[in-house]
């Protein structure tokens, strides 16, 4: 037996030993034995570590009242759950996306984007209860364990075969990350709805709020599908798989109905309390990430502006801004570069272009810069490193092939050359949108409110969704409404 096979045998024995020691653990909900590869202590440790990554990726909503409100609602639900002893954490993250997700170990997140479309504390409790259900049933741990077990051979191979850079292991971790944010499949989603409804009832909410909030989110998704077609982009998705999980789903009503055995005489709704705490919360992009107006990034805090190609979908992410053409064959990306670095050094040392790339110094609107043109793993690239004060920014265009590059080279170059210090007029345009409350007057319509909104052509649909009046409802006199200013 050669040395490689001896090593493989030793690693296989070690991993098998771990599996024998940890492959089954009691499910906190059912009591049955689940296949899992980590203890509760390991689960908590993993969640705590991943929590720091989430905060780096999204950032907190800097609103102490809102954070305390969500934490209070969440912890009240968690104390009625099957894992009341966990140290639960509830966080509102600074993202306009409509989403909520959970990490193992008791870490629950809601975006300010999803909260904009809720209209009561009971609906918020429905979202939080669903995510608590994922944690109490250990869905993330169970899914990660299955992925790890399926990938053990690949992981061992990547360790022992030179040049693999542990890509197989990275893929498994990526699968876990995607599962936590993108959903767990129909059975796990339904189980979380059942558990969430139980926790709602035990905490004094109507368990039917679980069905109602899924209806709210389904309407939001249906509207975004329509909007995405007009904007030539992919629709955004909440992590539940709504195509197999609609609000009128028979099994959904059945599992939620199981919570009716917990009698709730006077269910808590707290509509006004919820709406009051949402007053002043940002809607859409926040100043920390800069705002997108007419496909231009206007970043008042950084003092910069960049115009991306019209008709392209612009994704404003915490660490970069990416614009993608409708065919998804070309993109332009902006991201921070290293501080106090020379533009040419950044491109030559950090860009890793294929052999034959060309570099030249220059400037962009008075800012020292360097330019590069070449290819990255065969895909054409046009890039610039631009110094702006003590900061540096990288702007690059990438195309899938030479023909696409020829077609879009002008737009890529125009975006790079558009980088400039933000103007006073752009600072005015960069003011973020915020949610404000008004009281509806007699005869007031959503069309009238939309005409006064800065949201443009999507205003009426968005305002209806935000106030649970989609697709054609009208407000009643005296009703509290969320608008965007």
Highlighted features:
485 residues, alpha+beta, seven-stranded antiparallel beta sheet, four-stranded antiparallel beta sheet, 17 helices, 44% helix, 21% strand, globular, disordered N terminus
- Strand fraction equals 15-25%
The number of E-state strands comes to 19
Q: Quick one: biggest sheet? A: 7 strands, antiparallel
Q: Cα distance, first to last residue? A: 73 Å
Structural description of this entry:
The protein has 485 residues and is α+β, with helices and mostly antiparallel strands. It is built from 17 helices and 19 strands. The protein has a seven-stranded antiparallel beta sheet. A four-stranded antiparallel beta sheet has the order 7-8-9-17. Strands 3-5-4 form a three-stranded mixed beta sheet, sandwiched between helices. The radius of gyration is 25 Å and the shape is globular.
What can be said about this structure in brief?
Helix content is 44%, strand content 21%.
List the helices and strands and how they pair.
Layout: H1 3-22, E1 24-26, E2 33-35, H2 40-58, H3 64-78, E3 89-93, E4 100-103, E5 107-111, H4 112-115, H5 121-136, H6 139-150, H7 152-160, H8 167-182, H9 186-203, H10 209-231, H11 250-257, H12 271-278, E6 282-283, E7 291-293, E8 296-299, E9 304-307, E10 313-317, E11 320-324, E12 330-336, H13 343-350, E13 358-364, E14 367-376, E15 379-388, E16 391-399, H14 402-417, E17 420-421, H15 424-429, E18 433-439, H16 446-451, H17 459-466, E19 480-484
Parallel strand pairs: 3-5
Antiparallel strand pairs: 1-2, 4-5, 6-18, 7-8, 8-9, 9-17, 10-11, 11-12, 12-16, 13-14, 14-15, 15-16, 18-19
Helix pairs in contact: 3-5, 5-9, 5-10, 6-8, 9-11
